[in-house]
Amino acid sequence: MKSISTWVATFFGVGKIPLAPGTWASLVATFLFYPLLDLRWPYYGAILLFVFFAGAFAGTQYARRLGEVDPSSAVIDEVLGMGVAMFGLSKAHVEYCVMAFILFRLFDIWKPYPIRRVEKLPGGWGIMTDDLVAGLYALAWINIGKILVDYIK
Asked: Quick check: pTM over 0.70?
């Protein structure tokens, strides 16, 4: 179980990249979720739920093993956050995927309310939930941008 939780928490070792592991994991996740964008929402949502719960479990085990609250090498949360930020986007609009990446990283680093608060949840719940909220913020701003673009047209 130790090695499985490590692989999941570090997203198959991406979290072990020494410089900016969260950014690398977000970038890899962008390319991972892009082919899935045309899935119907229940299937896409099921994937996100699986990542959330698997990440919460693995993140708890991994953080406990390292003796840290939220190890920077635990990047499965960035995978979830990018999946959420890209929810409902279309493959036809790559620019929105780029926006999702940029906005998600911004909110994940900046941590506006309530992100900093939910990251204090115990174990893997805090690890995963703060990026879930950052992904929701990014998704909201992308949709606001899409509405404005449609309005201007």
From this structure: yes
| Paired tokens of 18 | 């020494």
* Residue 84: CA count within 13 A, CB half-sphere: 28
Count CB neighbours of 56 within 10 A: 21
User: Which tens digit of pLDDT belongs to each residue from 11-62?
Assistant: 999 999 999 999 999 999 999 999 999 999 999 999 999 999 999 999 999 9
Distances (CA, A) of 54 to 6, 26, 125: 11, 17, 11
3-state secondary structure of 20: coil
Structure tokens at 43: 């299937």
Domain spans, the chain: 2-152
